[in-house]
Specification:
Elements (H helix, E strand, L loop, with lengths): L1 E3 L2 E3 L1 E4 L8 E6 L14 H4 L3 E6 L18 H16 L6 E6 L1 H12 L6 E5 L5 H13 L7 H12 L8 H4 L7 E6 L8 H9 L5 E6 L8 H4 L1 H15 L5
Parallel strand pairs: 4-5, 4-6, 6-7, 7-8, 8-9
Antiparallel strand pairs: 1-2, 3-5
Helix pairs in contact: 2-3
Length: about 250
């Protein structure tokens, strides 16, 4: 169990037995699923002799928590999970990467914006740019434009119930503070979270050590790696070789 503030998160630590132990990765899953959904990204790091820590977000899987907050508290959970990985493995901050998909990708980007130069790099697949936009887009698509006036009330109520500020879940704004290398991938065919979200996040990044892949592989939301794992892996390899050579 991973301590994070007032609660505990459930996770798996995969210790890489190949020597030398060079790196570690914390991988965060998307909304409504659990750590099993993160397994598909593990090979990206396992081949580099990395230890890998997969965990369930608060209010997901076997972790505690009454509410999910779309990154507001999850960003701290990710930092605490990385600290736990350091404790168990003796790795330094600059040998640890954070990676997440969708909900977990947005939370990972928010996490490194608070500690903007602490980790080796951050990766995000199919993140959303802010909570307000994704709620409005899903409300319009699922229920029609007539319900859009209710979105502010819904956001206010959710914030009150879960004790968080929905307006603070703004990845696009937070991206301006990120200083470490950033890898972002998003499917062109994603009709759940449009790839424009990743493009706007990418454009807001002030670091020059960044890459955005809008894949055109026919993948649905956060499924690019499922469609063409070898090509996805090569994109990650190229990114690391160019911007994070110490991770090789």
């Amino acid at each position: 169990m991973i301590p994070s503030g007032e609660l505990f998160l459930s996770g798996w630590l995969f210790r890489n037995r190949i020597k030398p132990k060079k790196c570690g990765a914390v991988i965060a899953h998307g909304h409504t699923v659990n750590r099993y959904a993160s397994l598909k990204y593990a090979p990206l790091f396992w081949k580099r002799n990395c230890h890998i820590l997969l965990f369930d977000h608060r209010h997901h899987g076997d972790s505690a928590g009454s509410f999910g907050t779309y990154g507001f508290f999850e960003k701290n959970d990710i930092i605490n999970t990385a600290e736990y990985l350091k404790l168990l493995t003796g790795l330094s901050d600059d040998k640890i990467a954070l990676f997440g998909e969708s909900y977990g990708g947005a939370a990972s980007l928010l996490a490194v914006s608070d500690d903007s130069d602490k980790y080796a790099f951050v990766g995000a697949d199919s993140p959303y740019k802010d909570l307000n936009s994704i709620i409005r887009e899903r409300a319009e698509k699922d229920y029609g434009r007539m319900l859009l006036p209710l979105v502010p009330i819904t956001m206010w109520t959710a914030g009150l119930r879960a004790s968080f500020n929905p307006e603070a879940v703004n990845v696009k704004r937070a991206a301006k503070k990120i200083r470490i290398p950033v890898f972002i991938s998003h499917s062109k065919q994603d009709d759940f979270t449009p790839p424009d979200h990743s493009q706007e996040i990418f454009d807001s990044l002030e670091t020059e050590k960044k890459v955005l892949h809008i894949t055109d592989w026919g993948a649905s939301h956060a499924r690019s790696i499922n469609e063409k794992p070898e090509e996805y892996e090569k994109q990650m390899d190229d990114f690391i070789e160019r911007y994070v050579p110490a991770f090789l």
